[in-house]
Amino acid sequence: MNEVRSILAVVICTILLMLCPARSFGQQTFENFESQPATIEQFFDGEHWLVVVIWSFRCPICQKEFSTYADLARRQKSGSFTVIGLSIDGHEGFGGAWALLEELGDDFESLIGEADGVADFVLSHSHQPFRGTPTIMIFDPGRILVAFQEGPVRVDSIEEFIAQRSN
Question: I need a surface site. Which of 5, 72, 89, 125 has the fewest CB within 10 A?
Answer without folding.
Answer: 5
